[in-house]
Specification:
The protein is of the alpha/beta class. It has 11 helices and 11 strands. The chain has 2 domains: 29-121 and 246-314, Bordetella uptake gene, domain 1 (D-Maltodextrin-Binding Protein, domain 2), CATH 3.40.190.150; 124-229, D-Maltodextrin-Binding Protein, domain 2, CATH 3.40.190. The N and C termini lie far apart (68 Å).
């Protein structure tokens, strides 16, 4: 009798650990942002996590891990337990331009599980307001008439601001001298002062200077004009077919996240990106772009491949 009772109880006993394993999330989640606190990436992460946590029924603990261009943060998350409780806000540098231009101690594809896209903001081609050009076509002619006498700034070698301008130079068949800076702020200081003449910054960084009239916006990247610069054409409209570059943000976890955990994270992330979150992200000009994990994974692979090809063609290979 006791033996029959024990056998009858076995299915329920075996099911208990499985049910416990499916309880996700079972505690607060660690959300690593690979930059110092206070910047645009940090704002995006904290804004998303506030709403996302409510949908998951758990608190997100946002942790800023700067240094090494995001390398330390990426290694930290790649080595974490693959249970979904440690996530990384990957973005175009950690999972796009850096893998394309540097030897890294992590693999941006194999070492991570894609969870979903948060959103993206375009880059904008701007010139010093004193430069006598009003359109992209006029800027191209200005460069052709002054080979080697026009310079452009960037937020650093291998940054999106650098590669986007190199893409422009390649497609336009023009030359301009690259002046790299340690961040977008000093790059803008010299653009405003006339030490450099052009740049391809993210829209959020460019907007205050465009609105002040100290720089002129010639075109934006992306598939459509941006609502904040409705009169500024896209690069495609300006005659550059297929030209695109976006400052994007997404979420990844360590490699090997269980499929049910990924689905829960993706479903709730996409739900969090609806409603009024668009307005809350407007300060960084980020447009929410919810995706499935599979679509986001493909997006990351395609972005790395695109920038890797450009870096190879332009001879851009940097030390890690």
């Amino acid at each position: 009798m006791k033996r029959r009772t024990l056998i009858a109880a076995l299915p329920a006993t075996l099911a208990a650990p499985a049910l416990h394993a499916q309880a996700f999330p079972s505690r607060s989640l660690r959300y690593v942002v690979p930059v110092a606190a206070g910047g645009g990436s940090d704002l995006v992460g904290r804004t998303v996590c506030e709403r996302w946590g409510r949908l998951l029924g758990q608190t997100f603990v946002v942790e800023n891990i700067g240094g090494g261009g995001g390398v330390i943060a990426c290694q930290t998350v790649a080595r974490a337990a693959p249970d979904g409780h440690t996530l990384l806000q990957g973005y175009v540098a950690t999972h796009g331009t850096s893998p394309a231009t540097r030897k890294l101690p992590y693999d941006a594809v194999r070492d991570f599980t894609p969870v979903g896209m948060i959103g993206a903001t375009p880059n904008v081609l701007v010139v010093n307001a004193e430069l006598p050009v009003q359109t992209v076509a006029q800027f191209v002619e200005h460069l052709r008439a002054r080979p080697g006498r026009v310079s452009y700034g960037s937020a650093g070698p291998g940054s999106l601001t650098h590669l986007t301008m190199e893409l422009f130079k390649q497609q336009a068949g023009v030359f301009a001298v690259h002046i790299p800076y340690r961040g977008i702020a000093p790059a803008f200081n010299d653009l405003l002062g006339g030490q450099t003449q052009a740049m391809f910054p993210g829209l959020a960084a460019a907007l205050p200077h465009v609105r002040s009239g100290r720089v002129r916006a010639l075109a934006v990247t992306g598939a459509a004009r941006h609502a904040l610069l409705k009169d500024v054409p896209t690069m495609v409209e300006a005659g550059f077919a297929g030209f695109d570059a976006l400052q994007w943000y997404g979420v990844v976890g360590p490699a090997g996240l269980p499929a049910p955990v990924v689905k829960t994270l993706n479903d709730t992330l996409n739900a969090a990106l609806g409603g009024d979150l668009r307005d809350k992200l407007a300060a960084e000009a980020v447009e929410p772009q919810p995706m499935s994990p599979e679509a986001f994974g493909a997006y990351v692979r395609d972005d790395i491949a695109r920038w890797t090809l450009l870096a190879r063609e332009r001879g851009i290979q940097l030390d890690s």
